[in-house]
Amino acid sequence: MNVIKNGTITDVKGFKAAGITAGLKKSGKKDLALIYSEYKAVSAAVFTKNLVKAAPILVDMENIKSENTQAIIVNSGNANACTGEDGYKNAKKMTEIIAEKLNLHPTEVLVESTGIIGVQMDMEKVASGLEKIVPELSEEGGHNAGEAIMTTDTFPKNLAVKIEIGGKEVTIAGIAKGSGMIHPDMATMLAFLVTDISIDKKLLQKVFSKSTDDSYNMVSVDGDTSTNDMAGILANGAAGNTKITDENSEEFKIFKEALNFVNKELAKSIAKDGEGATKLIEVTTKNARTMEDAKKVSKSVITSSLFKAAVFGSDANWGRILCAVGYSGAELIVDKIEIFIKGEDKIIQVAKNGMGIDFGEEEVEKILKEEKVGVIVNLNDGNYDATAWGCDLTYDYVKINADYRT
Amino acid sequence: MNVIKNGTITDVKGFKAAGITAGLKKSGKKDLALIYSEYKAVSAAVFTKNLVKAAPILVDMENIKSENTQAIIVNSGNANACTGEDGYKNAKKMTEIIAEKLNLHPTEVLVESTGIIGVQMDMEKVASGLEKIVPELSEEGGHNAGEAIMTTDTFPKNLAVKIEIGGKEVTIAGIAKGSGMIHPDMATMLAFLVTDISIDKKLLQKVFSKSTDDSYNMVSVDGDTSTNDMAGILANGAAGNTKITDENSEEFKIFKEALNFVNKELAKSIAKDGEGATKLIEVTTKNARTMEDAKKVSKSVITSSLFKAAVFGSDANWGRILCAVGYSGAELIVDKIEIFIKGEDKIIQVAKNGMGIDFGEEEVEKILKEEKVGVIVNLNDGNYDATAWGCDLTYDYVKINADYRT
């Protein structure tokens, strides 16, 4: 597997993209993105579990059933959430306009929105934006699309990797956005992947769902789950490989591994760019009794405001980690727990048998000042491992969210 | 029911208390509290559900079974948590010393600790403190005890009320501490109540457990659940009422109502004094399908960092409330939801049918600037109501927790 330098979604055969300013953001920044496959493509997606679902999510939950999906239209600046019947009609209208211009059926278009909740879309601006964006589609448009889906993100998130499947070169790429309200179970987090592999639609949905569970759903910034979360993928077969239909095949395994890599790397970049974050935190739980327990523990630690504030302050507070392990809901034996703090090139044990041990506090503080802080919780009570990602809790998180106007 | 002005635990017949400096806090502030009943008393308590339980909690889970409980010894400055076998022995030692001085059996003494995790108690200081505190016991010592259990609290929490039971005057009073790590399911939160009522021990446990579920367990400051949480009550019968043994009696109902009042008021004062808090937030969910659903919704809103930061910024962001309702896990119909913001003397509706409505944003902002902010979520889908309490998320929360040394 090779990571393409500065790669993005338009590095994938048969995909074009564009990102423009439609005027939905007061800042005048790009706010409309379009991804288009020149060939027929199968799609898969996962959606927010929040009962309050934004209008475009409701539309997509229908459209994802289509055997062909060739376009994804996304706006930022307005989430089209809590907007009722009118909002639903507007989301549908977006798919209809794009479908007409690209000669598709409306159900062959996915739509997403991100931004402020509870305000109707300015459909005049949207319509004129849709008019402008189609001619902008190009094989260099991926980075622009990646920019156009951002809200409070501080950097765009693009990734592309190449693998070989049955002698054919296959590319998998994605753009993502994160920042506020990022939490397990698909909080305001968008990820759009494209690949030129040829694969059965049902198999794509199965592997994609599992992969998002281990990546985006293991990210937490503030514990809130949004109305608009979605991760989706299009696969258009342009690589020319023999269609993958068997999940036990070598080809499928290679694809799965690369897909997991792309999703995890995008998930990490989302965690790193959490609102106000100064550090990426990675919590790995080892040797839990079940996978569910391993995930519970990692998520519990990464979600603890007290632990996150301690990391911001570079305070080696293992007690807060152990405390979060204890209330995670996982089955475990406290006396068996070991905790380690992991830096760039050093691992230091801070707790053993469920108790603190003597350790060089200065050395740990040095690690806690690095850009990436690792925590390993070894439960010593089974064979399941799971990793979760998040960021520190800072003054800036409060500032951004105490006065957030688009 | 009458609230006693500046009332505290020593306003209850037959109870003495003391609060002194033993030197466990670097600040030199009071850090050792003793509550003592001159008469035999029955006790009830609820403990943290965290699997990582502090040493004194383990001791109390045994001692609470005793038919007689006449003393509670509490230190602040050190939580005696994650301290293993030595910690357990030290907690037991504290009950033994107090028992000897007060002529009790060690199992007739409850012990609690609050403060830093993972450090062994300085037993020399503790022992000399225990030596000093017993002679300090007095009928005016309640306020000192209330002060001595504080950690990052900014004000002591005392309350006492009088009721009449079968022609006898009965008093119920309590001291509490809160601040960091306060969350449903008994997070670092201590509440010690005393009453002179005569009541059956089992009945006391039953009514006390239920009452804490609706009060302390409905408070959230930061979502963390600590290793040391506990709420306990002693009832010594000094009021001279006929012993209450029937939960259907009028006397029991009067007592229950007063007990609920004391617990809820102490819970509210804990929420108000959350670390860095500037406002008390009260979220009431109405007309849920089940009591569990009503609690889930209220807790989900009060725990949302995004909502809490919006309240700090006096931002009328009903979308974040609706979003938190949606991911609460409660069964509900989004289209039926109404949301109201409630101030001192005004209620303003901000959402209807699961959507925002036009409202005077300035008026709502005025309410959000008050010291107490109310939110009412009407699910219009059943008959169950529940209230939760919390506080706003502020710069100071991050500051206190990024650099918390006792």
UniProtKB/TrEMBL annotation, chains A, B:
Alphabetic keyword roster: Acyltransferase, Amino-acid biosynthesis, Arginine biosynthesis, Autocatalytic cleavage, Cytoplasm, Multifunctional enzyme, Transferase
Active-site annotation: 188
Reaction(s) this enzyme catalyzes, per UniProt: N(2)-acetyl-L-ornithine + L-glutamate = N-acetyl-L-glutamate + L-ornithine; L-glutamate + acetyl-CoA = N-acetyl-L-glutamate + CoA + H(+)
Site (Involved in the stabilization of negative charge on the oxyanion by the formation of the oxyanion hole): 114-115
Site positions (Cleavage): 187-188
Enzyme Commission number, as recorded: 2.3.1.35, 2.3.1.1
Subcellular location field: Cytoplasm
List of residues binding substrate: 151, 177, 188, 275, 401, 406
Pfam families cross-referenced by the UniProt entry: ArgJ
InterPro entries named in the record: Arg_biosynth_ArgJ (IPR002813), ArgJ-like_dom_sf (IPR016117), ArgJ_beta_C (IPR042195)
Record flagged with keyword Amino-acid biosynthesis: yes
Record-linked CDD domains: OAT
Keyword Transferase: yes
GO molecular function terms listed in the Swiss-Prot or TrEMBL record: L-glutamate N-acetyltransferase activity; L-glutamate N-acetyltransferase activity, acting on acetyl-L-ornithine as donor
Pathway note: Amino-acid biosynthesis; L-arginine biosynthesis; L-ornithine and N-acetyl-L-glutamate from L-glutamate and N(2)-acetyl-L-ornithine (cyclic): step 1/1; Amino-acid biosynthesis; L-arginine biosynthesis; N(2)-acetyl-L-ornithine from L-glutamate: step 1/4
GO CC, alphabetical: cytoplasm
NCBIfam families: ArgJ, PRK05388.1
Similarity-based family: Belongs to the ArgJ family.
Matches recorded under HAMAP family: ArgJ
PANTHER family: ARGININE BIOSYNTHESIS BIFUNCTIONAL PROTEIN ARGJ, ARGININE BIOSYNTHESIS BIFUNCTIONAL PROTEIN ARGJ, MITOCHONDRIAL
Function: Catalyzes two activities which are involved in the cyclic version of arginine biosynthesis: the synthesis of N-acetylglutamate from glutamate and acetyl-CoA as the acetyl donor, and of ornithine by transacetylation between N(2)-acetylornithine and glutamate.
Subunit structure: Heterotetramer of two alpha and two beta chains.
Protein name: Arginine biosynthesis bifunctional protein ArgJ
Origin organism lineage: Bacteria, Fusobacteriati, Fusobacteriota, Fusobacteriia, Fusobacteriales
